[in-house]
C-alpha cells in the first residue's frame, strides 16, 4: 500500500538524482512514480553543478535530491551536501559504496538520510521519512556498517578535550575551563589525532575532528543548538 506524502502545495514529491551512471538514474526515476504515485521524476545529473543548472531551468523545483557518494568529477561528498543544503534541498545519500571508512564518513556531513543501493526497496521509505521531517533516517544495511564499527578507544580526558575542541572551544579556553596547562590540552589533542589516524580516519582539521566526534557520538547532533 502506498504511503502518502506530498511536496509543495500538496503536489507530488519531485525526486531528482545526482549519479554518473545514466542507466541507474533512469531506472530510479522511472521506478519511484510507478511504486508510489506520491513521487514524480525530476532531473538527473552527473554532478552537483550540473544538477543546479538543470533544476533552475525546469518549471517545478526538486523537492528532494538523491546523491551518490562517489562522482567522476572527484568532488567531495561533504562539499556536495553543503552546496545542496545551502540551496535548501533535502539530501538522501544513495550509494553503492562498500568501504566502511567511506560509509562512516557520511555521518555528520548534513545529509537527511543514508541508503545503500542494495536496499533499493527502502528508498521509498527513506524519501517519505525525509519529506515528513525526519532528518536522520538511516537504512538497516547502512546502519550496520556506519553505526556498528567503533572508533578508537579514548580516555575520558581525551574525549572531553575532543568534544570541546571539535565544537569550537579553543585549546587555551579548554585549559582554563579544566584547570590544566595548555600543553596538557595540546598533548591530548595530539593523542586523539594519532589514534584516529591509526584507525584509518583523516583528521587534519577541526572539521574532520567534528565529523568523527559526531560519528562516534562523543558530540550530540544537536550540539550547535545547545551552545556547546
Describe this structure in words.
α7 packs across α9 (about 180-200) and α8 crosses α9. The model has no long low-confidence stretch (mean pLDDT about 90). β4, α4 and β5 form a beta-alpha-beta unit. This protein has a 6-stranded parallel β-sheet with strand order 2-1-3-4-5-6, with helices on both faces. It is an alpha/beta fold and about 230 residues long. The chain contains 10 helices and 6 strands; from the N terminus they run βαβαβαβαβαβααααα.
User: Low-confidence parts lasting 5 or more residues at pLDDT below 50?
Assistant: none
Overall 3D geometry? elongated
Helix count, per DSSP? Answer: 10
The chain-level mean pLDDT equals 88
Strand order of the largest sheet: 2-1-3-4-5-6
Q: Proportion of β residues?
A: 5-15%
Strand and helix layout:
Blueprint: E1 13-18, H1 22-35, E2 39-45, H2 48-57, E3 64-67, H3 77-86, E4 91-95, H4 100-104, E5 113-116, H5 123-131, E6 137-138, H6 140-146, H7 156-166, H8 171-178, H9 182-198, H10 206-215
Helix pairs in contact: 7-9, 7-10, 8-9
In short:
With about 230 residues, this protein is α/β, with parallel strands linked by helices. It has ten helices and six strands; from the N terminus they run E-H-E-H-E-H-E-H-E-H-E-H-H-H-H-H. It is elongated.
Describe this protein with a few key phrases:
single chain; 228 residues; alpha/beta; six-stranded parallel sheet; 10 helices; 6 strands
